[in-house]
Amino acid sequence: MAALASVLIVLTLSLLINRIATIALTLTGLSLEAASFQARSAFTGVGFTTNEAEQIVTHPVRRRIIMLLMLLGNAGVVTAISSLLLTFITAVGPREWLLRLLILGIGLFILWFLARSRWINRYLSRLVCWALRRWTRLDVRDYTSLLHLSGEYTVTELEVQPNDWLANRQLNDLNLRQEGIVVLGIHRANGRYVGAPKGNTWIRPYDNLILYGKLALLDKLDQRSADLAGEQAHREAVAEQKRMLAKQDREEARDEAKQRQKGSY
Questions:
Q1: Cα–Cα distance list, 16 to 5, 39, 72, 212 (Å)
Q2: Is residue 141 a part of any domain in this protein?
Q3: In this structure, are 34 and 123 located in the same domain?
Q4: Full residue range of the structural domain in which residue 109 is found
Q5: What's the pTM value of the predicted model, to 2 decimals?
Q6: pLDDT digits (tens, 9 = 90+) for 198-216
């Protein structure tokens, strides 16, 4: 039974290490999805694609995190496999074999439930951020909160295709801000990066745009083609944004009126 307990302990530690590494990578600027994928890939030793590898090897902090994950992952996999083998090799008779298999299944289910729990992930993330702030020099600002990346809003990448509505046009001509979309940066196909692009910046095919806005709008923009339907979709998005801004103005006016009323008492 000691071997079975060691299996569950190793798996628990592995999940915890992956969670810590994921949070640490997000603090270096990676998105949550990319950080989670990178951490799991490094810990299991399955590797990752060339573009994602470049994001790691060119960043000294990310490189140290991934190297540590690789070392811990190799030790963890070997320990888990050896303990798992000992668990069933030392079983006496089919009844004890089935009992250990049942205990292992229950333990794996509990770990899966804990790993999927949003409540546990939320408080674990806070604890890990506090620990990283306390004992490391990582930049632990919460960029998700700073950019209000919750609910409908997000930051995402969009690759421009030759037949897209965005292709071969200047930002001034696109008027994306009128739709409520902000272009934060552009990764050119030749590897050059344009940060905070100006209005006269051209969007070329195979550029990767870093966009901020509502997820639904960004999805529709990704599907917009360079034709009359694309122009109509742009006009509709602009009109919808104007309605939303007018609603915000009315809400701000009501809040301001309430503040004035409170101040008059």
A1: 17, 11, 12, 31
A2: no
A3: yes
A4: 2-135
A5: 0.49
A6: 999 999 999 999 999 888 8
